[in-house]
Structure prediction request, 988 residues.
Amino acid sequence: MEGDSCNEFCISVNSKQYHPPAWADRLLNYFCRQDYADEILGDLHEAFYWRLKEKGPTKAKARFTWEVIKSLRPKNLKSFYHLSLNTMIFRNYIKIAFRTLLKRKSTSFINIFGLSIGAAAFVLIFLYAYQIISFDDHHQNKERIFLAYKERITPDGIQPTYDTWIPMKDRFLSDYSQVKEAARIYETDSRVIKNNQYIEEDMMYTDESFFDIFSFSLLHGNEKRVFADMQSVVLSSEMAMKYFQKENAIGEIMEIFLPDEDTILLYQVSAVLDKYPVNNSYQPSLIIPMESIPVYPEIANNWSSSFLETYVLLDRKESWMDLEAAFPDLIETLWGSEVRDNTNFKLLPFDAYYDTFLGNKNDAYTLLFIGFGILLIAAINFMNLSTAQASQRMKEIGLRKVLGAIRGQLRTQFITEAFVTSLFAIVLGLILVFFIIPYFNDFFDVSISFGMFSLLQIIAFCAILAIALGILSGSYPAVYLSSMKSIDALQQKMGFGGSVNFRNILVVLQFSIALFLITSAILIRNQISFMTNKNMGFDTESTITFVASAADFTDREQGIVRLNTFKEELKNKSYMTEVAMSRAVPTNWTRSFTFVRPDGWNGDPLRMRYTYVDANFFNAYSINLKYGNHFLPDSEGNQRESVILNEAAMKAFEFDPNEQNVIKIGDRRINVVGVVEDFNFESLQIEIAPTLIFHRTGEHPVHRFISCKMNMTNLPEKIEEIEDKWNELGSTNDFTYYFMSEQVQRLYEAEKRYLGLVTMFSALAIVVACLGLYGLTLFIIEKRRKEISIRKVLGAEISGILQLIFRDFTKWVVISFILSVPFVLFFMTDWLEGYHYRIPISWITFAITLALVFLLVIMTVGYQSLRAASSNPVNHLKDE
Amino acid sequence: MNLQLGVLEEMILIILLMKDETYGVDIAKEYESQLNQSISLPAIHVVLKRLEKKDLVTSKMGEPTAERGGRRKRIYQATNKGYEAAKYLQHKRSEMWKVIPAMNFVFQ
Prediction:
């Protein structure tokens, strides 16, 4: 019977060449116990050919695979010990790795400490950058959320504005089937009334669909009906704790004063939000239905003033193109063809929200690159020191080779050593990060934590980092060391750790990265100090601003009277030079726009900012008049027919300052009475915008600020005195004041944080690089001891010997410097381009960096070199 | 005699008794031809290992053949104990069968 089957088997195999699936065969062969392999594998093979004959190749193969998998049961497997990853030799590698670490403590310290600083820096940067890169990611519909906005096409360019109209939401929902949900958001401030006290809180007016579009989960309340009715308020959990001392505040009543609406309303808590991530664009604390505000029925169909944000949730991401194509027709039906020509409706992907309004994700990516840079520098230290030490381990390598170690095994050994070191370093680095995080958050005013990752993710991240770092830092030494000939290794022929050139390239790479970072940090610092110290065009030193708006009084009429009394009282103080009221102040400038034409111009109108001031405003800020006259004193009443321009506006209108100029808003003619010098009312990042400045006296309700130019001595007493006066007024707003100088500083907070981060990590980079250099110096001196001694015996001076050692280092630093310059020029020109008022990149910066790095290098290398150069040559010559 | 013997274990033990000397694939072939039901080799291997542990079968290595990829067979043979066990089970079963009142099931 067996003979028969063999004949048939031979024919079928030979003619059709069917074999069991090789991968399954190999899999089982690798894992199967040796004493079972013959039986199991043999049977499976035999059964395969039998089934091949009976049932055809497909079924036979499937059956074979299935049986292989079923055969992989624990009892059939090799013990871990017998798998051909030979654990015994691994144990030896790890033992040797520890011994080497302990034997050369200084190098081990440099390696592990350098790597752990690198890893710590990288982890910190990663945590920070991840927070920014994943901004708003927790909204599940993020891809399909868009912010509707408009663009005005004006003769001086396209100006996007992101506020939209109240009825736009319903219009979108009824006109476009692609729009699945739409919600309006208006963020303002409110006063929660508690025990007769007015407590200022951020307020969001929105629609119930807000909770369908954005992913805010509820701690308490009904997901389906978040607002139970029009008198419902939704609280964040913090607010619930603050006002009701419990998270489940459902059903509680809140009394809220809305300054914008000039009313006090009662709301019932209908839901409490769960905690949401910090990297969320919207951080709502109090949410009420937009329809609940008393004025809503009057403005529900108002297509003339836009002030809120409209979000849409589309059926799918790609629909935004269809919508944008359909918008011009909507504009035409709403306002006619003229508006169609100068207005676009656009959709901003919610993804782009962070970059448009809050910051720049590119900064996060830049920081990540810096993180990689530091990691690379630390890894290079490891590579260099390992190869430099090679000569000291040559006997070991030679012996291993003689005893039969093949190259692959030696490579595995060195990679294992690198892996052990990098694992140590990463654990140490993580411990460092753990302790640094609170200080880091405090110092940079950020809120990073491990909290956004699960423990498993952190462990996986560290494992990947350790393996990547191990391979990065261990691969070159492994390849280099294992490639030596055993006879050379035993005779220790390669005296100076081999491939010097490659090592020099690595050192140059390290210093190029460090130099690049330092130069960039200095340039960023220069730009920021330029912006904060530049003359802004107004007086920042002796001006204090109080927030003082009639809207903050529960009775507006009363409020105006009281604010004016307050103003008069301030004026009468001996230390007051000037007191002015205005709608906007520099650093918190107007964002209101109007359409304006110079008289006699028939083209499209310009879209220009406008604001209101009283007659004392320019004096309070020492803003100089360039042409014409100031407004007449406030006693002359509101000067509705007059406007003062800034220089930018004058240029935009192409006015001749020596003539009597007139502008037209709609059909109203307004005389230009004067032109003030340009002053920077915003960050110097932005060019000064043309602004129309109108006059209103303090009796008019537009004003929101009182600015005082005053004698700044004995300030605390004066502020206290003014505060007492303020508290008598009965405003719902707490006494709030700013110093203009501080406000100017505050404009650059983001830049300063960025500078802080870049500076910190550049410093780390250069420290790690110097650490490596120090190790390398120790080694080079060790190697050249005899040469130095012989030179000394032959009469060389200490200076000559120092020169000998320093020559190489100087060469490296200079080459690194030359390499770093184009990168600095490229990246920093790009960065500076984001600032309208900016510093030139001067050669002095480069000179300073070079000097700094030289100094550091000399300090690093100097002591050891000097000791070597001045030691007694006899000590080092007698050992043979 | 106190023996826990599963149905498959008993079946394979009987096949071994029928064949005197046999091995995995042969058992599978016999099983399929007798019962007209397919069986997987790993299942047979597990059963054989269990039977061997209970001393009902012994095994020795055979010669390698080409169709086994040059691997040897493990050849199994039932022991006396195995024969006794199978016989005991069969005997017990026959006794129990006699007690079943056939009438109860005739018309179902």
Notes: The two ends of chain A are 82 Å apart (CA to CA). Chain A touches chain B at residues 2, 5-6, 9, 37-47, 49-50, 63, 66-67, 70-71, 73, 75-76 (CB under 8 Å). The mean pLDDT of chain A is 84. The CA atoms of residues 439 and 445 of chain A lie 9 Å apart.
